[in-house]
Amino acid sequence: MKAYLFPGQGSQFVGMGKYLYKNSHSAKKLFQLSDEILGFKITSVMFEGPMDILKNTKYTQLAIYIYSVIKAKVSNYFEPDMVAGHSLGEFSALAAINVFSFEDGLQLVNQRASIMQNICESTHGGMAVVFGLEDSIIENACKNDHGIVVPSNYNSPEQLVISGEIQALRRVCSFLKKGGAKKIFILPVHGAFHSPIMKPARTKFKKIVNQIFFKDSKYPIYQNVTALPVRKSYDIKNNLVEQLTSPVKWKQSIKNMIAHGAVSFTEMGPGNILQGLIKKISKNFLSQNINP
Question: Rounded to a whole number, what is the distance in angstroms from the first to the last CA of the chain?
Fold first, then answer.
């Protein structure tokens, strides 16, 4: 069975989508439609940058969604048996398999990015990647701190991301360094994504999600919140809302996809971050990125 994966924030690069825009009439129409819906030229930010603008959450999430979905829509090779998306990538995956329309997905991502950006600007949160420690050690360190800090991305057996208040994050990172972590670095983001700090976003985003028409999925989508295959629109909606404050169970999702018959993984989006994680999770499976 073929599994297709959609990346999240951090995979963006200046120039993303430019080749498709120039060489595919169908892609060009969708890029132009994106500019019309948003009311500004997101394509200019994607194609020309600068990176300082592109890496802003407001633009990053839109750019990755647009590129990933268009890439799937115009590809002759997008024939999934199952799909998954890393954080923001869930929206790309759902649009690619027609659970909701490209246009509705763009509005969802736009609203989500705006809500998240507002919370980032009003709180002092951050994220850090921890390498080389057992999950249980990191989980206990977070639990034992008196501030808000939690595991937020179970990316691979060797990599777990934590999110929370910046002071709590630094305390836990210091503790884990002394506890034998191979490497720890603070991510260049100004928010504690997938943590309780994002709780104010849930109520607002739920109202927006409930205004969008979702279809049941033709293919199982392994959602971040449960790492289990989901098809029913009601469950998909709930999981998208819960994802804001819940950890991304990525390695669990990949392991479950393998257990359920996946024999290859194809990354549909910018960059190759997910390919690298696949190699860490299981060295026996083919992973590729369809270019451009």
Answer: 23
Contact in structure between 39 and 107 (CB atoms under 8 Å)? no
Helices (H) and strands (E) in the chain, counts: 13, 10
Strands 2-6 and 149-156: unpaired
pTM over 0.85? The answer is yes
For 14, which DSSP code?
T
Secondary structure letter of residue 224 according to DSSP: T
Residues taking part in catalysis: 87, 194
The label of the residue with tokens 């990647």 reads: 129
Residue 97 CA to chain centroid, in angstroms? 16
SS (H, E, C) 164-221: EEHHHHHHHHHHHHHCCCCEEEECCCCCCCCCHHHHHHHHHHHHHHCCCCCCCCCCCE
Q: CA quadruple 258, 259, 262, 268: dihedral positive or negative?
A: negative
Q: Does the N-terminal peptide bond of residue 270 adopt cis geometry, omega within 30 degrees of 0? A: no
pLDDT for 85: 98
Task: Report CA-CA distances (Å) from 205 to 92, 135, 143, 242.
Answer: 17, 30, 27, 10
Residue 242 has pLDDT above 90, yes or no: yes
CA neighbor of 244 nearest in space, from 87, 75, 19, 16: 87
What pLDDT does residue 111 have?
95
